[in-house]
Specification:
Layout lengths: L1 H29 L16 H7 L2 H31 L5 H16 L2 H18 L8 H26 L3 H8 L4 H29 L3 H6 L7 H9 L5 H34 L6
Helix pairs in contact: 2-11, 3-6, 3-8, 3-10, 4-6, 6-8, 7-8, 8-11
């Protein structure tokens, strides 16, 4: 009976994974289809990747997505690291609401967050007298707000687990707060900051819902461009573009995972002298 239940649960899990990932696999497979028909296989070819990379609209949207993702990653790393370092040192009455706000940003449904950001930017732009306040700047700000919490969560876990012994030893040896941060704290936090930055870049690069709500008429990221083209039908070039986005996102996630795993291994293997 127990074995039968395990098999039933395993079969259900397989069906769930097939339901989730089979459409993605179809898109990737037909990105290498040699013909223009997206429903029938007509031979293996990589020409649609060259067509996609040679389309000015796709390359322009790709460039904007990369620039926004890079800017978001840098700003989110700075703000998230500052937040991660400040929270453990705050008093409970101050730390608790800020901590709850950071987690709320992560658990709030993205469409709710996007609508709130849209209302904020439109009302703020109206009060400032701006006719069209939405653009790439609003996309960047909205992404930074979300990804700052992501970076803070990753960096804070590393900061809390590494202890304060080396920082206290640095202070005892006469180093000031800035010197201690530059020579002791920052090098130990660097893997977590890098991993958080990679995750922030990935989340920003392939984000659609938030970007769709707060974008302007002259700022079109790659996910928004793909959505706009899908309304006129799926083309092999769109399949190739989606496949490249998927591959790029997976690479970034895997790199972030390896960085975090290496950081965790170094932390577990580290010991204090004499212990």
């Amino acid at each position: 009976m127990f074995v039968s239940g395990r098999r039933l649960l395993g079969g259900y899990a397989v069906l769930a994974y097939v339901f989730l990932y089979a459409p993605i696999a179809v898109v990737v497979v037909f990105a290498f289809n040699g013909g223009r028909d997206t429903l029938y296989w007509q031979g293996f070819s990589t020409k649609w990747f060259h067509v996609a990379l040679g389309t000015p609209e796709i390359t322009s949207a790709l460039r904007l997505s990369i620039l926004i993702a890079l800017g978001n990653a840098v700003v989110a790393c700075v703000l998230g690291t500052m937040l991660a370092l400040a929270l453990p040192r705050m008093r409970p009455w101050c730390r608790t609401p800020i901590d709850a706000l950071a987690y709320m940003t992560l658990v709030t449904p993205e469409i709710v967050f996007a609508i709130a950001a849209l209302v904020f930017f439109v009302q703020g732009g109206t009060r400032l007298g701006l006719e069209n306040p939405l653009g790439w700047q609003t996309i960047l700000i909205a992404h930074v707000v979300f990804n700052t919490s992501v970076v803070a969560l990753v960096v804070r876990a590393r900061f809390v687990s590494m202890g304060q012994q080396l920082e206290e030893a640095s202070f005892d040896l006469g180093a000031g707060p800035l010197s201690t941060f530059r020579q002791v704290t920052l090098p130990r936090l660097a893997p977590a900051i890098l991993a958080g930055g990679l995750l922030a870049f990935t989340f920003s690069f392939d984000d659609f819902i938030t970007s769709f709500f707060v974008t302007g008429t002259q700022s079109e990221t790659l996910p928004i461009y793909i959505w706009g083209q899908l309304r006129f039908g799926v083309t092999p070039a769109i399949n190739a573009t989606a496949a490249m986005m998927l591959a790029f996102t997976l690479v970034m996630v895997v790199v972030a995972y390896l960085v975090l795993r290496r950081s965790g291994s170094e932390r577990d293997g580290a010991t204090l002298p004499g212990v």
